[in-house]
Specification:
By secondary structure, the chain is an alpha+beta fold. It contains 13 helices and ten strands.
Length: 340
């Protein structure tokens, strides 16, 4: 159990290191933050905290650096305090252009804006919370062994995907498949229909059942993509962090920017249903993110969830990053409620 003085030392050291990027010594802490305690007293406490895993020492003559354990304590303290009012937030967010017509354009603008403002990799996403309804499914054979499946959603949006079909499946059988699938979907959400389709398929022949199983898997993939619209940016900021020595493994984060599935998984795995979630260093499952922190902010309104995220070095300015995400999220939500 940490004493109150030890807690003060940890919070002060993390804050100072975030501001300066230099190892922090006992004299600095005593002079700037713990004025009632001598450097010798602070030094002894820092030594104990190093043994407890909160600090590390780069070399014998230097001050201490915070470990991921110290960052976690610091972030938890921030999250449990009322958010401070930052006078420049309104002015900063006023530079964000949300008058763009398409959702993809708005999210792209938000992710670029966040990266410029925070010098971190950023993600912006909108997830549809209400279940989707499919108006019609149709098949168009494009070769003897492949077919185009076409989905028409309520509201008129159309999506399609190519999938293999058994060669022995006739055009008449394909029409029967489409008719059966549309009958199951009519007047129901995708989730409702999906629960009963498995039992429905047990009465079909093997080729037809195989074709329908493949179709349902592909439809599920389309539904997942349709529910989540994502944009990510910040390659320049990642490279700058690597040059500054704030980030040791930039390659993994750069690959993340290029892989749509990886960005979508990041949103799914790290974002809370509502509010702020911060994941620090070793808490991240991916090896490429072990020296990174992930800050996610989420808010739901009118059947949609807006998610904003920052991925940056452990020495990121957490308090300011959280304030920026909150401010941009408030600006984005009204725009995110419009249609696609």
């Amino acid at each position: 159990m940490l004493t109150e003085r030890q807690l003060e030392i940890i919070l002060a050291l993390v804050y100072e290191y975030i501001q300066t990027g230099e190892p922090v010594g006992s004299r600095t802490l005593s002079k700037k933050y713990l004025t009632d305690h001598s450097p010798a007293t602070v030094r002894n406490e820092m030594s104990d905290l190093e043994e407890l895993g909160y600090f590390s020492k780069p070399h014998s003559s230097a001050g201490r650096l915070p470990t991921s354990r110290a960052y976690r304590l610091y972030v938890d303290a921030i999250l449990h305090r009322p958010a401070p009012q930052m006078s420049d937030m309104g002015e900063l967010v006023s530079g964000l252009d949300l008058q763009l017509k398409g959702l993809d354009e708005r999210l792209g603008e938000v992710s670029r804006f966040l990266s410029r403002l925070t010098r971190c990799l950023s993600v912006a996403a909108v997830r549809v919370l209400d279940d989707l309804r499919v108006h019609k499914v149709d098949f168009v054979r494009v070769s003897s062994v492949s077919t185009l499946v076409i989905l028409v959603f309520d509201g008129g949006r159309v999506r399609h995907a190519r999938l293999p079909m058994p060669a022995e499946l006739t055009d008449e059988a394909l029409d029967d498949l489409a008719g059966a699938l549309n009958h199951q979907l009519r007047g129901r959400t995708w989730r409702e229909a999906r629960r009963t389709l498995g039992e429905f398929l047990t009465h079909w022949s093997v080729p037809e059942r195989t074709a329908m199983d493949d179709t349902l898997d592909r439809l599920e993939e389309i539904m997942d993509r349709e529910r989540l619209t994502v944009s990510a940016g910040g390659a320049v900021q990642v490279l700058q962090a690597a040059e500054d020595g704030r980030l040791e493994q930039p390659q993994g984060l750069l690959r993340l920017l290029e892989e749509g599935d990886a960005v979508e998984s990041l949103i799914t795995d790290y974002a809370a249903p509502e509010g702020i979630r911060v994941t620090i260093g070793p808490e991240n499952r991916a090896d490429a993110m072990k020296d990174c922190s992930v800050v996610m902010a989420s808010s739901s309104s009118r059947g949609r969830q807006a998610v904003l995220g920052l991925i940056g070095p452990l020495r990121m300015n957490y308090q300011r990053s959280i304030a920026i995400l909150d401010a941009v999220l408030s600006a984005l939500n009204p725009a995110g409620d419009d249609g696609r």
